[in-house]
Amino acid sequence: MVSENQSVPTGLFITLEGGDGSGKSTQAELLSSWLTDAGYVVVRSREPGGTDLGLELREIVLHRRGDIAPRAEALLYAADRAHNIATKVRPAIERGEIVIQDRYLDSSVAYQGAGRVLDGQEVREISLWATEGLMPDLTILLDLDEGVGRERLDEARTRYDRLEAEKHDFHARVRAAYLALAEASPERFLVLPATDSIDSIAASVRSRVESLLRR
To answer: What is residue 45's three-state secondary structure?
Structure first.
């Protein structure tokens, strides 16, 4: 387990990242089922909205009518993250369980940092403070062209949240930020084309997770 200022726990923390429409939820479910069938205890979470408090914050940051100042938005995500890690994720890891989570601090660096044109390092530092430095063992980045992502959303959505509704250049900045994060931390990231088949992506994810389980 990778953690700053914390002793090393025994579980695993796996996060999935990517632009809207990249298929994170599908891959999280497939990975969870595979691990559960193999006898592991799996805890699922997401950000925002992994806890009861998080559900309230999710409604604010994704569905509130009217503007939210970019810095306020970043702080709301950090608040959700702090509570999620303290009350759900870290206790599960310390019990030796495997946490699979849809989005983590890389999302904030990409969406609030690059998307909202804030300082990405400052956004990251806020999240590190909020989570006492907890970092994932593995981050799976499903890389998808923002135009293809919009087409997928158009097929699946009748209502867009505040971030999904942003314009093309916003999502282009988000994608570029994700790829830069992955390039800077190749030991943590597994980058997969989200246009590959669901089964192919799942097989690549399982192969990488197996290497972590053998540590």
So the answer is: strand
Residue 106 and residue 77: Cα distance in Å, rounded? Answer: 12
Query: Considering the entire predicted model, what is its pTM?
Result: 0.91
Adjacent-strand bridge partners of 57: none
Q: How far are the Cα atoms of 131, 143, 169, 200, 209 from residue 6, in angstroms, in the given order? A: 11, 31, 38, 35, 23
Distance CA 153, CA 151 (A): 5
Could you tell me the CA-to-CA distances from 62 to 3, 67, 105, 132, 162 in Å, in that order? 29, 11, 16, 25, 5
pLDDT tens-digit map of 150-187: 888 777 766 777 888 788 899 999 999 999 999 999 99
- Distance CA(42)–CA(167), nearest Å, equals 36
Is the CATH number 3.40.640.10 carried by domain 12-213?
no
